[in-house]
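Appendix B, example 12.
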Amino acid sequence: MSGSNLPAVILFDGEEVARENDPAGRSALTFRHVDMTPEVQFRLEAKAEDVGTKLNLLRAKLIGAVLADTDLLALTVNLRSIRYQGSMTATERGRSMEGGIGVAFTFTYLMRPGQLSA
Protein backbone atom coordinates (compact mmCIF):
# COMPACT_ATOMS: atom_id res chain seq x y z
CA MET A 1 0.00 0.00 0.00
CA SER A 2 1.51 3.33 -0.97
CA GLY A 3 1.96 6.24 1.38
CA SER A 4 -0.66 8.26 -0.48
CA ASN A 5 -3.30 5.71 0.60
CA LEU A 6 -2.37 5.88 4.28
CA PRO A 7 -3.65 5.84 6.95
CA ALA A 8 -5.88 2.87 6.13
CA VAL A 9 -8.10 0.34 7.87
CA ILE A 10 -8.61 -2.97 6.08
CA LEU A 11 -11.13 -5.63 7.11
CA PHE A 12 -10.45 -9.19 5.98
CA ASP A 13 -13.34 -11.66 6.17
CA GLY A 14 -11.04 -14.30 7.53
CA GLU A 15 -11.86 -17.94 7.96
CA GLU A 16 -15.08 -19.71 8.95
CA VAL A 17 -14.84 -23.21 10.41
CA ALA A 18 -17.78 -25.37 11.50
CA ARG A 19 -17.14 -27.17 14.75
CA GLU A 20 -16.79 -30.93 14.53
CA ASN A 21 -18.33 -31.53 17.96
CA ASP A 22 -21.87 -30.70 16.75
CA PRO A 23 -24.29 -33.68 17.01
CA ALA A 24 -23.15 -36.53 14.74
CA GLY A 25 -26.60 -37.56 13.47
CA ARG A 26 -27.62 -34.09 12.35
CA SER A 27 -29.44 -33.47 9.10
CA ALA A 28 -28.06 -31.13 6.45
CA LEU A 29 -30.33 -28.33 7.70
CA THR A 30 -29.49 -28.70 11.41
CA PHE A 31 -27.76 -25.69 12.95
CA ARG A 32 -23.96 -25.69 13.22
CA HIS A 33 -21.62 -23.88 15.58
CA VAL A 34 -19.29 -21.84 13.39
CA ASP A 35 -16.12 -19.99 14.41
CA MET A 36 -15.52 -16.94 12.22
CA THR A 37 -12.12 -15.23 12.51
CA PRO A 38 -11.96 -11.88 10.72
CA GLU A 39 -8.92 -9.63 10.90
CA VAL A 40 -8.68 -5.86 11.03
CA GLN A 41 -5.45 -4.30 9.78
CA PHE A 42 -4.31 -0.77 10.50
CA ARG A 43 -1.70 0.75 8.19
CA LEU A 44 0.07 4.00 9.03
CA GLU A 45 2.74 6.21 7.60
CA ALA A 46 4.55 7.94 10.40
CA LYS A 47 7.91 8.90 11.80
CA ALA A 48 9.81 5.84 12.98
CA GLU A 49 9.49 6.76 16.65
CA ASP A 50 5.72 7.25 16.37
CA VAL A 51 4.51 4.31 14.32
CA GLY A 52 4.65 1.59 16.98
CA THR A 53 2.98 3.72 19.63
CA LYS A 54 0.18 4.77 17.29
CA LEU A 55 -0.45 1.21 16.11
CA ASN A 56 -0.57 -0.09 19.68
CA LEU A 57 -3.08 2.62 20.63
CA LEU A 58 -5.32 1.68 17.68
CA ARG A 59 -5.02 -2.00 18.64
CA ALA A 60 -5.99 -1.32 22.26
CA LYS A 61 -9.00 0.80 21.25
CA LEU A 62 -10.21 -1.84 18.80
CA ILE A 63 -9.92 -4.67 21.33
CA GLY A 64 -11.88 -2.70 23.91
CA ALA A 65 -14.56 -1.70 21.41
CA VAL A 66 -15.08 -5.18 19.93
CA LEU A 67 -15.13 -7.10 23.21
CA ALA A 68 -17.65 -4.68 24.76
CA ASP A 69 -19.93 -4.27 21.71
CA THR A 70 -23.38 -5.50 22.78
CA ASP A 71 -24.66 -5.63 19.18
CA LEU A 72 -21.79 -7.93 18.16
CA LEU A 73 -22.16 -10.04 21.29
CA ALA A 74 -25.89 -10.46 20.56
CA LEU A 75 -24.97 -12.22 17.30
CA THR A 76 -22.88 -14.87 19.07
CA VAL A 77 -23.97 -18.28 20.28
CA ASN A 78 -24.16 -17.48 24.01
CA LEU A 79 -24.04 -13.67 23.98
CA ARG A 80 -20.37 -13.73 25.01
CA SER A 81 -18.52 -15.69 22.32
CA ILE A 82 -16.04 -13.13 21.05
CA ARG A 83 -12.42 -13.99 21.69
CA TYR A 84 -9.35 -11.90 21.01
CA GLN A 85 -6.94 -14.16 19.09
CA GLY A 86 -3.89 -11.91 18.93
CA SER A 87 -2.10 -9.46 16.70
CA MET A 88 0.90 -9.32 14.42
CA THR A 89 2.88 -6.26 13.46
CA ALA A 90 4.61 -5.45 10.21
CA THR A 91 6.89 -2.54 9.48
CA GLU A 92 8.37 -1.54 6.16
CA ARG A 93 11.15 0.87 5.41
CA GLY A 94 11.21 2.87 2.26
CA ARG A 95 11.39 6.59 1.81
CA SER A 96 9.42 6.84 5.03
CA MET A 97 8.55 4.46 7.82
CA GLU A 98 5.33 2.52 7.35
CA GLY A 99 3.80 0.21 9.86
CA GLY A 100 0.89 -2.10 10.17
CA ILE A 101 -0.80 -4.31 12.69
CA GLY A 102 -3.38 -7.02 12.14
CA VAL A 103 -5.79 -7.78 14.98
CA ALA A 104 -7.84 -11.00 14.91
CA PHE A 105 -10.97 -12.02 16.81
CA THR A 106 -13.04 -15.20 16.75
CA PHE A 107 -16.83 -14.95 16.83
CA THR A 108 -18.79 -18.16 17.46
CA TYR A 109 -22.32 -18.15 16.08
CA LEU A 110 -25.07 -20.60 15.16
CA MET A 111 -25.41 -21.08 11.43
CA ARG A 112 -28.96 -22.10 10.58
CA PRO A 113 -28.80 -23.35 6.96
CA GLY A 114 -32.56 -23.05 6.43
CA GLN A 115 -32.45 -19.36 7.38
CA LEU A 116 -29.55 -18.19 5.22
CA SER A 117 -30.52 -15.43 2.81
CA ALA A 118 -29.32 -15.34 -0.76
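The longest helix spans residues 48-67. The mean pLDDT is 87.
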